[in-house]
Amino acid sequence: MVQATVKLEAAALKWRALAERRREHHIELYRTGRWRHYYTEQQFLIELRTAIALAQRWATIAPRPEERDAADAVTLDRARTAELMRAVAEIEAAAA
Question: In this model, does residue 41 exceed pLDDT 70?
Answer without folding.
Answer: yes
